Amino acid sequence: MQKIQLSDHFTYKKLFLFCLPSIIMMVFTSIYGVVDGFFISNVVGKVPFAAVNIIFPFIMIVNSFGFMIGTGGSALVAKTLGENDPKNANRYFTMMIKLTIIMGITVSTVSIIFLKPISYLLGATDDMIDYCVIYGRTTLVFNTFFMLQNTFQTFLATAEKAKLGLFITVAAGVTNMVLDWLLIAVFKWEVFGAALATGLSGFVGGFLPFIYFIRPNTSLLRLVRTKIQGNVLLKACVNGSSELMSNISGSLVSMLYNFQLMKYSGENGVAAYGVLMYVQIIFLAVFIGYTIGTAPVVGYHYGAAHHDELKSLLKKSFIIMGAAGIAMLAASQLLAEPLGKIFVGYDKELLDLTVSALKIFAVAFIFSGYNIFTSSFFTALNNGGVSAAISFMRTLIFQMLAVLILPILFGFEGIWWAVAVAELAAFILSLIFLFAKKEKYHYM
């Protein structure tokens, strides 16, 4: 089969084939992350499961700096490749990896030191605190590799090596799944075993692509000797700030959800929300994987001033996002009970709560894909401001207001409607920005 290149004209078939490795990669990443929750909930117990769900949003915030550098940096690198300047593309790529390592070591160290008070601040009870600290500190030891994995995921697509990215993700995922079984179910290391399994999988996911890019290779990119330029790093980080904002604000909203659920429903509510988050992570991974695949294509054609290709990519992507959103909503309604049983089948009251919550929560999938793609689309166009505005309003302002106000108006069930209402509001905002910027970028 002929190799698909960034410079090609993308039909639906080419889009599918080019993005498929990134989609599978993100879904697989999500699934092996969920394995921790499965083993902790079913082998260790409900309280440790709730504790991991309390601290997990904070760990995601720390990891999200890798997404920021990867998405913002790859947009700049793809644009530079489109401008036919491979030398500077490699220099920019190398700067991003150096920044990831420096930032990873710094934020991980600070987080490990202050993790116990942070856990209490997030709502951990005395019964949960030891589990939060053990899981959090063990995972954060490996955080630099997690950040590298997140950064490399986007650059592998930009380097036209998405299949290699998929292979590395599968290797990391298999590492996590096997070690979860071995350390939790066999050795009975409980929460520490789950965290160690996750950490070692992150090491595999971050170290293997580093070895690939530091050696001569057949991709569009490789690590080279270069000095760090502050203005280049700042531009990339500002452009990728939407992904950072999305992850940070999403985690903050998760914390708010946990506070509200502890108030209205106690540990059962937090545990049910944990299941919803695992399902959402897997489903949204399809959208995120698609944007990882399409972002370098958009960036390349923007750099090459191929306006017809931008129009084609936007139109096709909106059709794909719509179809995928409807399919996910249907799947959620049909699979709510089987999915709930996987995690909390041992507790009928908790299972019933989880199933009813998931059926409401899943309405958000209709709009989520549009919002995730539009934010990524503007990042690829090197417009971090618009991208960050969409992400900020979608994942922080709209969701935070919804989760605070809807329970007052509609009771406990209003909590589960909050995300769907927020996604609808963000969809309207995304359309406003797309129409407002069409003359500047010529994608309509």
Approximate helicity band: over 70%
Low-confidence stretches: none
Q: Which percent band covers the strand fraction?
A: under 5%
> What is the domain total for the residues?
1
Please report the number of helical segments: 17
Instruction: Choose one word for the global shape.
Output: globular
Structural class by helix and strand composition: mainly alpha
User: H/E element string?
Assistant: HHHHHHHHHHHHHHHHH
What is the overall pLDDT average?
A: 89
- Measured distance between first and last alpha carbons: 32 Å
> Quick one: biggest sheet?
none
Radius of gyration: 21 Å
Number of strands: 0
SSE arrangement:
Layout: H1 12-44, H2 46-82, H3 86-113, H4 115-121, H5 126-141, H6 143-158, H7 162-186, H8 190-214, H9 230-239, H10 241-264, H11 267-303, H12 307-344, H13 348-361, H14 365-380, H15 384-410, H16 413-436, H17 438-441
Helix pairs in contact: 1-2, 1-7, 1-8, 1-11, 1-12, 2-3, 2-5, 2-6, 2-9, 2-10, 2-11, 3-5, 3-6, 4-5, 5-8, 6-7, 6-8, 6-11, 7-8, 10-11, 10-15, 11-12, 11-13, 11-14, 12-13, 12-14, 13-16, 14-15, 14-16, 15-16
